[in-house]
């Protein structure tokens, strides 16, 4: 995975999900330290990253946070790790770590299962290629 930017955390997200797209735009707005880069799960690079870290892409229904050479997180753990790196009130989200991961992931899975029904879905990923935060 030599083509990944050094010192950046990679967020893999569902590129056709409206909720996920809104979350990415929100993260970009509050990522004042320029920590994150983004790649769609549906993209070739997204699929290669999943394979590299050993996640079956056909079983993936979650956001993934990948810190190259260090660790990866998915589901609620990924969301909490992302929040920890954002400025301001978002750091309070880390209080959810007090809940067992099984309970956090049940809530996460419920939202993930219903996200297309509640927020809609695009025909294709509308990532802005001119934005250097997207890989």
How is this structure best described in words?
The chain has 135 residues and is of the alpha+beta class. It is 38% helix and 13% strand. It contains four helices and four strands, in the order βαβαββαα. The protein has helices at residues 18-30, 44-53, 76-84, 101-119, and strands at 9-13, 36-40, 64-67, 71-74. The chain has a four-stranded mixed beta sheet with strand order 2-1-3-4, sandwiched between helices. Helix 1 (18-30) links the parallel strand 1 (9-13) and strand 2. The chain is globular, with a radius of gyration of 14 Å. The two termini are 12 Å apart.
- Order of strands across the widest beta sheet? 2-1-3-4
> Tally the helices: what do you get?
4
- Report how far the terminal alpha carbons are from each other: 12 Å
Query: How much helix is in the residues?
Result: 25-40%
Radius of gyration: 14 Å
Instruction: Calculate the mean pLDDT score and round it.
Output: 86
Percent of residues in beta strands:
5-15%
| Oligomeric state as shown | single chain
Shape: globular
Largest sheet properties? 4 strands, mixed
Unreliable spans are: none
Secondary-structure-based class equals alpha+beta
Helix and strand pattern: EHEHEEHH
Q: What's the count of strands? A: 4
Key terms for this structure?
4-stranded mixed sheet, 135 residues, 38% helix, 13% strand, alpha+beta, 4 helices, single chain
């Amino acid at each position: 995975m030599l083509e990944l930017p050094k010192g950046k955390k990679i967020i893999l997200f569902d590129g056709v999900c409206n909720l996920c797209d809104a979350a990415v735009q929100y993260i970009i707005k509050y990522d004042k330290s320029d920590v994150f880069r983004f790649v769609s799960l549906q993209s070739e690079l997204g699929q290669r990253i999943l394979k590299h870290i050993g996640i079956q892409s056909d079983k993936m229904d979650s956001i993934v946070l990948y810190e190259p050479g260090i660790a990866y997180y998915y589901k609620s753990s990924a969301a909490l790790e992302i929040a920890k790196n954002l400025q301001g009130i978002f750091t309070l989200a880390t209080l959810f770590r007090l809940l067992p991961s099984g309970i956090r992931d049940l809530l996460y899975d419920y939202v993930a299962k219903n996200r297309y029904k509640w927020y809609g879905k695009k025909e294709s990923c509308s990532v802005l290629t001119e934005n250097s935060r997207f890989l």
